[in-house]
UniProtKB/TrEMBL annotation:
The keyword Nucleotide-binding does not apply. Belongs to the glycosyl hydrolase 28 family. Keywords: Glycosidase, Hydrolase. The lineage of its organism: Eukaryota, Sar, Alveolata, Ciliophora, Intramacronucleata. This is Polygalacturonase. Transmembrane segments: none annotated. GO terms for molecular function: polygalacturonase activity. GO terms for biological process: carbohydrate metabolic process. Pfam families: Glyco_hydro_28 (PF00295). InterPro entries: Glyco_hydro_28, Pectin_lyas_fold, Pectin_lyase_fold/virulence.
């Protein structure tokens, strides 16, 4: 409860080594996976090169502001995103499992969904 990530930092999961093992059936971890969270704030942070979903958030009363998520496209290794080539399969930026959820002033460049809303 009452968790925050703030301050201009870059979290780099170095996911490229995981992307190639997708065809071998390996388990690719999510970058951030939260459960049973209330009052979460993420502000002015960058998440880069996730092995799988970037922010899988089971959280209520959540705000994402000025958050950047960078992963290469999922279908080609010819396109570079912030210094990294893909393909980065199934790297959703944000998977929303909660309410209310406020996302604003963010930049998502991913290999899959930018925001996936789950019931």
């Amino acid at each position: 409860s009452h968790i925050g990530f703030r301050g201009g930092g870059v979290f780099d999961a170095q996911g490229a080594s995981w992307w190639s093992c997708r065809s071998q059936g390996c388990f690719r971890p999510r970058f951030v996976h939260s459960t049973h969270v209330s009052h979460l704030l993420m502000m002015d942070v960058t998440w880069k090169d996730s092995p799988n979903h970037v922010l899988e958030l089971y959280a209520d009363f959540t705000e994402l502001a000025f958050v950047t998520v960078l992963n290469p496209p999922s279908e080609t290794d010819d396109v570079q995103v912030n210094g990294t080539y893909g393909p980065s399969h199934n790297t959703d930026a944000v998977d929303v499992h909660g309410t209310p959820f406020y996302i604003h002033d963010c930049h998502f460049d991913t290999g899959d969904d930018n925001v996936a809303v789950h019931a």
